[in-house]
Amino acid sequence: MNHNKYFGTDGIRGKVGDTPITPDFVLKLGWAAGKVLARHGSRKIIIGKDTRISGYMLESVLEAGLAAAGLSTAFTGPMPTPAIAYLTRTFRAEAGIVISASHNPFYDNGIKFFSIEGTKLPDEVEQAIEAELGNKLMCVESAELGKASRIGDAASRYIEFCKGTFPRNLSLKGLKVVVDCANGATYHIAPSVLRELGAEVVAIGCQPDGMNINKECGTTDVRQLQSRVLAENAHIGIAYDGDGDRMILVDHLGHKVDGDQIIYIIAREKMRQGQLAGGVVGTLMSNMGLELSLKKLGIPFVRTRVGDRYVLEKMQEKGWRIGAENSGHVILLDHTTTGDGIIAGLQVLSAMVGNSMKLHDLCHGMRLFPQTLVNVRFAGKNNPLNSITVIKACEEVERKLAEQGRVLLRQSGTEHLIRVMVEGEDETKVTHLAHYIADAVKAVN
After folding, report:
1. Do the domains at 157-167+174-364 and 371-443 have one common CATH topology?
2. Which residues are the active-site residues?
3. Which residues are annotated as a binding site for Mg(2+)?
4. pLDDT digits (tens, 9 = 90+) for 346-405
5. CA spacing 20 to 30 A to 74: which of 195, 257, 387, 399?
6. Which CATH architecture group holds 157-167+174-364?
7. pLDDT at residue number 1
8. Contacts of 221 (CB under 8 A, 6+ apart)
9. Checking DSSP bridges between strand 247-251 and strand 200-204, what pairing results, if any?
């Protein structure tokens, strides 16, 4: 469990202007991170950001704080989160910092760190940074201060890296692709990758103005993408989120294809090619249809808590190479160290081209089970999850579903809410059973 004061499961995040996303706090954070990271040797930090207007302010103060601690920074400008992980590895930098709040609205922002290996910072390093935040900011001697520079070819380096993950013997020639970059960090990268691999690209959500990131576009709202795929008569639509680590697809009929279906296609294709090492890691929210479809193929599947950090931990523990969340966060360790929307999309495209199949047909073989999610507020005195009546209601529903469904009750981490999720083959039955449990939860208060 994460007991840090500022670092959550995905770095530090919040509303710009409210603690901790304020210029003075981020200046101190840059200095504290610099003090801790300077102990490790190399004195260069790479800083990237998405397209939010607050990115300018935050990269300046981060750089000032790092410089005061004696570390030099190299700016990439707007770049996808996974690109910073990649550049941190190739430049052998001490760490990479991404200024982004992913799929959140423009008025939020966040700060995420990557280690020299291109993975999230270990907990003990985050804890050391938090401890340093309690000390007084002391500037190193003038001769020791850090400098700032720009990496001019960051985008072209990352474009080449992405293209290198696509099979050399295949091309996207003849494929019409609509790409929605969410007015975010992939806007100048994803269309180029696809065009250079031969696709005809229609780009939307590629006019960032600092405030339109994720606004009615990208992975959290695919309606624009769906209508454009149909209007353009395209073969596929690809949506990224604001920082490019998630991806959701749309088939030629305008149907949404989520992270569970994407990971099924990728795992089955790896298996076909004899490249599947182990199994697939999903989360508590992964659809039961995914689990049963993988089982039919003889592919092992395990679940972990919600959050890409936990998916990656479980993958490393088991030595497996494929993991994903149904939100479109796909981690493919054969290709890179972190969730990467562009690279995951290329794997699905290579399955389409390599098998001469439409995305719609690649989804056959996996049926998503209907899921009903009911949020129930509770007063906060008694936790309904410990109530005998709620436990009994869950057991009764599980008996009714037998092996063909599941029940999941989760307490929200941020508010007094119990999330009741029931999943099974029959939508009407599932909805009825979810409300039956929700009523039992309400009765506790």
Report:
1. no
2. 102
3. 102, 241, 243, 245
4. 999 999 999 999 999 999 989 999 999 999 998 767 789 999 999 999 999 999 998 889
5. 195
6. 3-Layer(aba) Sandwich (3.40)
7. 44
8. 214
9. unpaired
